[in-house]
Amino acid sequence: MKIAVIGSGIGGLAAACRLASKGHDVTVFEKNATPGGKISEIKMDGYRFDTGPSLFTLPELVTELYAAANEPIPSSFAYKKLEVLCKYFYNSGERLNAWSDQQKFTDECVQKFGEDPASITKYLKSASLIYKITADIFLFNSLHKVKNLMKFSVLKSLLQVHKIRFYKTMHGANKRNFKSPLLVQLFDRYATYNGSNPYKAPATLNVIAHLENNLGAYFPDKGMYTIVQHIYELALKKGVRFNFNSLVTSIDIKNKKAVGITVGETQHAFDKIVSDSDINYVINNLMDHPKEKQIKSLEPSSSALVFYWGVTREFPELDLHNILFSSDYKTEFNNLFEAKTIDKDPTIYIFISSKVIENDAPKNCENWYVMVNAPANSTEDWDELIRVTRQNIINKINESLKTNIEDYIACEKIASPITIEQNTLSKGGALYGNSSNSKFAAFLRHPNFLKSVQNLYFVGGSVHPGGGIPLCLASAKIVANEIPAS
Length: 486
Prior knowledge:
globular
């Protein structure tokens, strides 16, 4: 079959690889000049920056992708397991290393926070159980086909669904488990991995702690963008064609069947269409569909404000991943989702790939990816909000690290919800489509197909099962399983 893939984010690339490996004739249409979607890179003044996701978990899903293509993983795609998942800095002065070794992590929490070690063991076991229960139901199958729900493994999981704590909030469950509010804040943070609010999102999302704390976090030897580069090269090897600088302007539908796409003024006929574009953009701009009102009513996930700084000195107290927490997490999330603004004391994420990749910064320098959560764009005055937030970030960094960071910023580039929307077509620059701020969030994510339109499928972070590299890869597998081999 002739299959068109709209967009070359990680989901689109993986879907193209899987479908080409099944014998189909696959063509990818990408509006940008390079593949990757939200996973890209910037090079300026001798510094290199990964621009998008910076965490790599479940690497076996990439291995599985190569296996499906019957190709060996190239030796150039190498990655290492991190010893320190993240370094945490609190306003009260405490610092914590989140070790990947559970015993070291537990010992540190006991020493720094006075936490009961049994609470940590219990929590991580609970996160593992959530994963075992939900993986077949939510992650690696479509929720929207009855035949999938009738599998024995799925039925077995459904009998235990009360154990995933969808009826509690993340914060409520975490507060009940830990006596240290600082440790509660650490685990509440995982809500931001899919752009949500831990005070509203279901405790089911504590499964994210399992992926990172139990299974481990990794980092590619040459940076996150190499994940895109290698999957792109795999796609080329399997015969996938790529049309870059090609903005799809409509999905052509006749008699309730997708029959092709339009690029500019040119129509292209296809047997199947797989969209890796943001679902809000697709529904609102590429097709007429009654779901438009339902999609518009859903709350968007958070976006981000990112400063890419070339820094002319090294900070040995920092690691690859670092978090400088706000002093009032609840107020920060209220500002983010209710007031639609960035808190004056924001939680700051600092990602420094030059800690691992020496050539990502000049000698004795570092490449800082400095991010704070931001609301999806609606009516904000971004020029003023960026100006104020930049100063708040600098003040917080200076206080936490006892420095004057502005003296060392040699070059700068900024990404905001506006630029993210322009570059990726995600509505308002929302990073994960819709938020998970409800008990039934998993069921409200857009399915990987439409029952009302045949031959049209959806992959990527804005649809089932969710955002982040592993779930985008999972969405590609789900869709590829729905399309038979040639």
